[in-house]
Design a protein that fits this description.
It is built from seven helices and 16 strands. The protein is of the alpha/beta class. Bound molecules: zinc ion.
């Protein structure tokens, strides 16, 4: 089994379960999706879904999963969790683009039905079913990590997005675990969203995070040494570790408001190269659009995901601020 190469070749012939000497079993369950069943699971055995490549140009986490499966098959990594590894958008990975028809991370939680006929909608529906079936068999120890990288640089190179969970914060031990995995900041979402991690949090009862792990580069151009922290943490999860720890939790942020592009008159008054989490000075004009003016206040706000090139009516950035621990 050559997970990544076969997925990129579009292999749809799925070989049967592959038994390993340690008693575990590896099997393809769909294109780009592998399940690992440990040798002697019991009621305490944790359940871990790791997805990468929801955006097809974000290749480093995809390579991490490929190396992990190689090590499992070679007996260098012995799995003591129920694991599903997903290369989420093989068609976009093959083309080296973020998406083919529509941004897949806006299509979960049923949103795919509003974009029926797009390639990403079909795949998002398939991933939802795979995740739901996987976690339907699970005990309470469920975790989904959806791995991404970003085009833009970031003041915090690696950060997590915690999907909305009915106003509840992630458990402190999960925040500590994220810090131990090299995550430097956590954005707490303050509303439902059509992302994959929101779906598994809400519909599958999993602890779930979107992880932004550094810069997006094409296959073969990734410096995987910059991903060692998360790589080690993923491997420990597969070995059966529970996500907790005693590292100080990362700083938390919440959204204050979205900057909306109302018209083509929209002007973002930040450099094209501005990093995510760049601080905004009190009184700084962030953007304007006709009579709409977005001005920073208080001196502790920061900009996240600025993008003036979206269609009118869509979000062109988020203004965030620190949240209390
Ligand atoms: Zn992404």
């Amino acid at each position: 089994m050559d997970f990544l190469a076969e997925t990129l070749r579009g292999q749809r012939h799925l070989p049967g379960p592959l038994p390993l000497p340690d008693g575990s079993r590896v099997e393809y369950v769909a294109e780009g999706v592998v399940r690992i069943t440990p040798g002697s699971p019991d009621a305490e055995t944790p359940w871990r879904l790791i997805s990468a490549g929801v955006h097809g140009n974000e290749t480093a986490p995809v390579e991490l999963l490929d190396f992990i499966i190689r090590d499992v098959l070679a007996g260098r990594l012995v799995v003591h969790s129920h694991v599903m590894l997903q290369l989420a958008n093989p068609a976009a990975l093959r083309s080296g683009v973020r998406y083919l028809d529509y941004d897949m991370n806006r299509l979960f939680g049923g949103a795919h039905r509003r974009h029926a006929g797009t390639q990403e909608a079909l795949r998002a529906a398939e991933l939802e079913t795979l995740a739901a079936d996987f976690f339907a068999q699970a005990n309470a120890d469920r975790l989904h990590l959806d791995l991404h990288t970003a085009i833009r640089g970031s003041v915090f190179e690696r950060f997590a997005i915690s999907p909305w969970q009915d106003g509840n914060r992630p458990a402190p031990e999960q925040l500590s675990w994220l810090a131990g995995a090299g995550i430097e900041a956590v954005l707490l979402h303050s509303a439902p969203s059509p992302t994959y991690s929101y779906y598994t949090r809400q519909q599958c009862g999993a602890a779930a995070f979107t992880l932004e792990l550094g810069k997006a580069r094409p296959f073969g151009h990734n410096d995987l040494t910059r991903f060692q922290g998360i790589d080690k943490a993923l491997r420990r999860l597969l070995e059966g570790e529970t996500p907790d720890g005693d590292a100080p939790p990362p700083p938390l942020f919440t959204a204050r408001y979205d900057i909306i592009k109302h018209s083509d008159a929209f002007r973002l008054h930040l450099a094209d190269s501005v990093d995510n989490f760049t601080p905004l000075a009190d009184g700084q004009l962030i953007a304007e659009d006709g009579e709409h003016r977005y001005v920073a206040s208080g001196g502790n706000e920061r900009i996240l995901f600025p993008n003036p090139n979206v269609q009118a009516g869509l979000r062109a950035g988020i203004v965030i601020h620190p949240a209390d621990h």
